[in-house]
């Protein structure tokens, strides 16, 4: 089965719930998971802020990090949220071809984001290790935690892409997770990459 | 809570043009953040502007893509509380530091 064939796999339209019926178990589970996961991100950001406040010296992130590259990565992730939304819309409308196209675009954009992060780590690793200083430790912890989310999201989306039959509900649940990954990156980009020290 | 109220992407389908507008706004806000970070103005002003831009971006993702407005109130609260409180606390710490530094 070729990749395009996999992407255009048969869509199983979920039966529309009757009025008054509750949300799917998958959706409830995903929202609950995201509520707890958001607290994980919040905890990391708070730890970052506390360490930064109490540090005697804090390097200028713009001198160490590739801010423009990170901005481009932000653009990729935001655009992937858009393509994910279009994927679900196409799936709902029963347009298997359109869904495969948008789905593939989401995968490519997500992979490009991860590729950008890998390049950045490779560049930074030459002079900034995990234990170089507090800035390095918090940077790798926060961005690495987010990167793992992107990786998991990509694995889920890739699994749905190659699956012979895809339920629209599954795509909807996956899209909630993917939008959350996008959402979580926004404060990371602002706080870790852009917040000035002087 | 109806089933439609839990769908992030559809229910009453959004027009594609609105999604494109949201995407363009998000890209513009990201570019604006980079510009603001490099402006030769006071640090507290830049921090405040950056936080405002980041929160606007986050709100846009929540409303346009996650369609938070269509979720049940409990879901909205469960999602918004950690998302808003975490960064808000971090911002408060940053502003507090800036204030203490200027008082020295």
Question: What is this structure's SSE topology?
Answer:
The complex is a heterodimer of chains A (about 200) and B (about 100).
Chain A: H1 3-7, E1 10-12, H2 25-54, H3 61-64, H4 67-92, H5 96-124, H6 134-162, E2 165-167, H7 168-194
Parallel strand pairs in A: 1-2
Chain B: H1 16-37, H2 43-65, H3 73-103
Description:
With 198 residues, chain A is mostly helical. Helices cover 76% and strands 3% of the residues of chain A. Chain A contains seven helices and two strands, in the order αβαααααβα. In chain A, α2 (25-54) packs antiparallel against α6 and α4 runs antiparallel to α7. The longest helix of chain A is centred in the N-terminal third of the chain and has 30 residues, at 25-54. Chain B has helices spanning 16-37, 43-65, 73-103. At the A-B interface, α2, α4 and α7 of A face α1, α2 and α3 of B.
